Amino acid sequence: RTRSKQQQSYKKQTTLTNLKQPKSPAVRHTTKRHRKRLEIPVSDESEESSSSEEDSSDPEEDEGELKVQRIIACRSETVCAWREICNKMNTSEIENGSRWFQDDSDSDSDDDSGNGKPDNTFQERYLVKWSDLSYLHCSWELENDLMDQVENSKTYLTSFFRRSENGLLFTADERGDGEYFDPSWVQVDRILEIQEPEQTEEKTVGKSSKRRRLSDTENTESSKHGIILDKEHPDYESGTGRQFLVKWGNTAYSECTYEFERDLILNEVEYEEEVESFCRRSKKPNKSDMNKALNSIEHQTRRLYKIFGEKLKLDEKEREGKIKDYQTKLTDHVFPNGGQLRDYQSEGVSWLMSNHVNKRSSILADEMGLGKTIQTAVYVNTVATTLGSRGPFLIVAPLSTVPHWSREFTSWTELNTIVYHGSAADREYIREYEMAFERDRPTAVGFNQSFLKKCHPVTAPKWQRTWMAQVVITTPEMLVTEDFAELAAVRWEILVVDEAHRLKNHTSKLAANLRDDRFRFDRTLLLTGTPIQNNMSELWTLLNFIDRDSFKNIDSFLERYGDIKSKEMIDELHDRIRPYILRRLKEDVEKSVPPKEETLLEVELTVVQKQYYRALYEKNVQFLHRNVKKALDGPSINNLAMQLRKCCNHPFLLRGVEDELRVQEQKKQ
Q1: Looking at the structure, do residues 424 and 436 belong to the same domain, yes or no?
Q2: Same domain, 320 and 347
Q3: In this structure, are residues 102 and 96 in contact, taking their beta carbons and an 8 Å threshold?
Q4: Where does this protein have compositionally biased stretches of type Basic and acidic residues (predicted)?
Q5: Contact 380, 353 (CB under 8 A)
Q6: 103: pLDDT confidence band, cut at 50, 70 and 90?
Q7: 37-67: pLDDT as tens digits
Q8: Are residues 330 and 251 in the same domain?
């Protein structure tokens, strides 16, 4: 059908349509399906009473209501083709590609249901994304079914017709490699919670009902975790297996959904690795494990101090030899992604570890392209693995670089890395499911109280104050909003600030919040490719941030180094900041990169460009506006340098020139 016919078809509603009996929705497990908590319960008596009144309402009314989130696609196929397509689409919410149980009761009807029609008859269906369900449960629905069974379906159809192109809602860039939507939306990114299946089931035998416990001996066809794949099995409806709270790929945390394990198996969704990852990261170390970790930290710190310790009385050659051996081991080490560090990157990591062992913060100011992100990831990983520290470590990076940071930490390390960003609902899910271990999460939080602050009581021993998240990546904007109070509740092992030149304004809110006494961290690492952009006060701001005791007064610093005019003063400044800053250029460390070459090609202006360039330069308004009725329709002489630049790039960039030249071409023809 054409789009006009599509729009006309759903507008024609007859009185007979409203008299049809509603079909039975294939929502067989909604009573078992867990619902996401939209907000953390508040420990207030008045709110508890109101919530109890809300809970007393009939749950079946909410469970049975079907809501469309959006219509994704429109497709026309034969009845036979639809039968083949839909027979492969079965989940706990979808039956043979539809949200409703399809029967043959309407075989004699004249609607578009397709029942009783020849197999070669074409039929049009819409791919529907249902509210509160993932893209795993999308279904192909007939227009009449949507109009009859779902409220406000006309609105969704109108919106689809207005926004779709060639029967598809999403553009090619949004779909990626998918036919109708991004395939990563049905790929498991993380599992946030696992609910085991119920151990008891009710089974009717003859006319009497008996309760029995399912076991491997009684139900040999049931697989592990109570999954039943055989549709003919009498307990197929209850054999859905475990439930996972799934965060899907390239989606927000607020869009995570509970999914049955059987649905993932039937749709060939890989999830085993994420289950193992969840079980591994959600296991909180006990007191014995934490005591061993603390002893390991002390032992490894003493071992590294023998290599990097500045107060040790070692011969200079002996010290350099130990550091060189340590760098060689770093260069030869193969990381989880199969990558290895370059020699200058190993030197950078060893320098960071030297400052860490000597309890000094650092500024890594390598030129862009030398791998500051990788060096930081390896440095944090070394502190976590070699020293046995669980962190957590906070990475503050611009929003555009957050995916890159997450990708590098995931590939170069095995640390539990999360991205703390998104809407208020997204961040609430992250705090509740990702930051703290399940046993540490509070059951109730008062109004205007910090969730993370209540995870670990002040009186709790040190070994209990551990966090499930090891690396948290966030943006500077999160530290100047209400989330500052949440993030300040955590004592961070290392604070990493990418693009640290944003801190050059000593009085900015970001700099003030990071210097706030409530925000606690043991070490600081600042990353910037331009430690000095305008003046020496910016350098002092960075130095003051990492060592307030050594760089207290900006006036004395500027008086000494604000106007350097001699080589001796430059050497003195270098000696003073050398322990804090490491700065390297590509031509100094990356010998494999050939030197940059510039080739200038001069291009002569065309005849038309020369004419308009000269007219603009001489402000010849008579020539520029010779064929226009209004001056606003011709080239402007305001901001002359920009107009000349446009003319050099292409004359059509000048207002009115393209129309004038096309008119001249038509006259010649």
Answers
A1: yes
A2: yes
A3: yes
A4: 221-234
A5: no
A6: low
A7: 444 444 444 444 444 444 444 444 444 578 8
A8: no
